[in-house]
């Protein structure tokens, strides 16, 4: 074999250093969980990670044992002396630690953190976009358009979010890709720490339980769930709706309490609170209902599908990319309580079809939404960006 025909394996002397930026670690939401899982699952022989945030709540169990070195740079404003001082500290850190990729999550990290990471160097900048811009102000909208030139890749959590980034933020299509959330199915299947749901709620085994998962705030549409419940219990009086999630908006919860009293459904709706083992709860329920007004891509929805629950979800964000309408569940219009109630009622009256849809949902997760698939695609994106930079 000639020298030119010899195969030379790729040699990498040390793992590529990735710095992940996220606005805060103060809520155990989908983005926070997915970020920490990503860091934990990245191949250690190819990548090492650091985590940068501007606010941290160390009392929450999820953040007490972070999977990599982490750094907190308190940030009140992005334009005061403290921000200038922290920008210098972050740039020194990135340079000293030879960070080759900065990967950002949420508005402040995307805009301020991305700018700090990119200006004056050839570092790769990746931005994860996980919603439809529901929390953005005017300055955010302007900022995202200005950052387009600096960002090397936008990873959208669903096709609908990717289209939003291209259409609204002006991201060039070749810089935008979809990276769906992925679940570790062995952990989903192994979870069994939740107490007995029916015993806790004092409901019989024959009582249908319809669950939703999400922090209690307006965008999650819990008020729509109440209207749905009020319609459904007229036909199935013993049906129970279970809301799993933390109270993130006390004022909204007060409105919910008043609506429950007004509709007379206090015995039909139960609030479980937050849980660190949602799949254990879902496996004890019959149907999953997601009444959200906006979503990027719902972790709770694919968790329910992984638990073989038939799902009814609103046609927002990436929901219709997860649920196959008429196959693994139903997609309904946002705010359509009557339509949702009809779909849930159809599932309860046809247990055979409900079970079939649940099985189909599990198959969809296994084929599209696993952690292995997500990580293989993410690593592929990183490797391509690094290869392009070397060339």
Please give a handful of descriptors for the protein shown.
391 residues, Rossmann fold, 2 domains, 42% helix, 16% strand, disordered N terminus
Strand arrangement within the widest β-sheet reads 3-2-1-4-5-6-7
What integer is the average pLDDT?
94
Strands, count: 13
Structural class: alpha/beta
Q: Note the overall shape.
A: elongated
CATH superfamily of the largest domain: Glycogen Phosphorylase B
**Helical percentage:** 40-55%
Number of helices: 15
Q: Would you identify the regions where 5 or more consecutive residues have pLDDT less than 50?
A: 1-9
Largest sheet geometry:
7 strands, parallel
CATH topology of the largest domain: Rossmann fold
From the alpha carbons, calculate the radius of gyration and give it in angstroms: 23 Å
The CATH first-level class of the largest domain comes to Alpha Beta
Beta-strand fraction estimate: 15-25%
Question: What is the CATH-assigned architecture of the largest domain?
Answer: 3-Layer(aba) Sandwich
Give the helices and strands as they follow along the chain. EHEEHEHEHEHEHHEHEHEHEHEHEHHH
Q: What is the CA–CA distance across the termini?
A: 27 Å
State the domain count.
2
Helix and strand arrangement:
Layout: E1 16-22, H1 30-41, E2 47-53, E3 70-72, H2 81-96, E4 99-105, H3 107-118, E5 124-129, H4 138-146, E6 153-156, H5 159-167, E7 176-178, H6 185-190, H7 197-201, E8 209-213, H8 222-235, E9 240-244, H9 250-263, E10 269-273, H10 278-282, E11 287-290, H11 299-306, E12 311-314, H12 319-322, E13 329-332, H13 337-349, H14 351-368, H15 371-390
Parallel strand pairs: 1-2, 1-4, 2-3, 4-5, 5-6, 6-7, 8-9, 8-11, 9-10, 11-12, 12-13
Helix pairs in contact: 8-9, 8-13, 11-14
